[in-house]
Design a protein that fits this description.
Helix content is 34%, strand content 15%. By secondary structure, it is of the alpha/beta class. A 7-stranded mixed beta sheet has the order 1-6-7-8-9-10-19. The radius of gyration is 24 Å and the shape is globular. The two termini are 26 Å apart.
Amino acid sequence: MVECPVCSAELLEMSMEQAEEHVNGCLDRSVLEEKKRIKKTNIKIISKQEPTMEIRGAKAVLEEIEQTEPDTEEIPQYDIPLEKASPQASYMSKHPLPSYKRMPHTTFTVDAFKYGKLDFCTGYFLTHFHSDHYGGLSRGFTGHIYCSRITANCVQYRIGVDPQFIHALPMNRRCNVQGVFVTFIDANHCPGAVIIVFEIPQANGGMARIVHTGDFRASPDHVKQILQILAVEHNQPVRPAMVLNKLNSYGSPPIDYLYLDTTYLQPTYAFPSQSQVVQAVAEFCFKVNSDKTYLPNLQTKSKQQKKPMQLTNWFKITSKAPTRTSKRRVLFVVGSYTIGKERLFIEIAQRLGARIYVAAAKRRMLECLGSRSLLQMLSDSMSAQVHVVEMSRVNMRGLTEYLEMAQKHAPFSSIVAFRPTGWSHAPGALYRQQPRGPDPPGPAVLQQLLAQNSQDPAQLIQHLAQISLLQSDSQFTIDSLKPRGASASVTIFPVPYSEHSSFAELGRFVCSLNTKHVVPTVSCDAANARWLQHWQNVNALFAQAAKSTQPELFSNAWIAFISNAK
């Protein structure tokens, strides 16, 4: 079954265009519902003042956003007085609390605000500020919320929760929250999004370990950071310098529960890396903006060619540019939600040397990120050449009207717009041919591979990667950009800029961790869920293989593979 990640509607019988239109429509509606919650109030943002820094591109700007607390030898304590830590008075909710929202061995929940005030809950963790995760959170909420500093700023600004109930935990630091050790690491999703590592002392002297990914885009750094955290004795502090270092020891204690973002748990989702997409889009914008020998030839594209065109076919080279070409000014527009997609529009602006225009409400959200470098790039004038707009506006009618409005402020001749979402790369044409994808191989196949390659870690890993679909991500260049919708003045490019993990990235992540139970946090059918068990089996095979060789040798071979997998 192929489901919409927002409303869970079945998409199996839809074409690629229909499926994308459905999902984008669901996403747009969630944004419109979220806008109704905006409170026109001047709430003081609780972020620290950040030092001015030299702007060196999107990565540098975003690295400034989440600053860590001072590096000390102590474990920060978040012990709430008993009268405040007592469970909230419960009331009936329209929806029963799903089991995966409550963390075992704790009185904590994660992203569980729409289920009412829960009589057992003393700590409500919020992974990031997207409406499908904070939905149900209201101004009068009096439960204790634990989140990152950026998310805390957003919660206070957009929802108006009393600051005494918002606890902003530092990044990359082990904290003691009501007797449970909690560490936040960056989830590579949207600003402020975190992966949560829970370590819960047990009565028998043992330790229960839980990793909750929230929404995330898996990377080798996540594996290294999680293993590094778990390798440190629980009574010792985990400090940023330790977490951000390279992995220097093999193995870690087992993870009891891995709560996994399975938004794209289907082999057909093989979209490229964010960096490839960002660089290709930024380079394309630079070419369109600076090369005066290129003239848009958009009106006749569909009439003259029936086959899909490469990007280079969308422009014709002229030996001499008309006079009006030198005055032509293209407006570049990027669709965005409340928070997210920042890497794309920052990199475009950096490549063009341009300022970024955002509406007042979006600007206030960006102020919550606490980055002066980003704020310096913003402009209050619509004459700026890069605009960030609501995703729901990125359609032919909406952008045609938007261009007319922008032309009152600057001589823009046309709009080139981008709609960034992982759904842009879903090979919907394959749905009918391969609705499930291949089945994972059985344990006997894994044991046979181990027997044949037990002394050669690199060879074993390559064979396992092939049968486990760990190298199925696609590549992305300028020629991968293909317009979907164009007129004489407006061209729209869907781009596979996903802030969720691809299928192969999920596989590499799960294979890397010694996990007893993997719990999907997004609905998936039984066929695709079998891959989760297969990847757990692969990790168990790695443990066997490590015993046959040298643990460090095998660990280094695996880390090298996941760091270079394409």
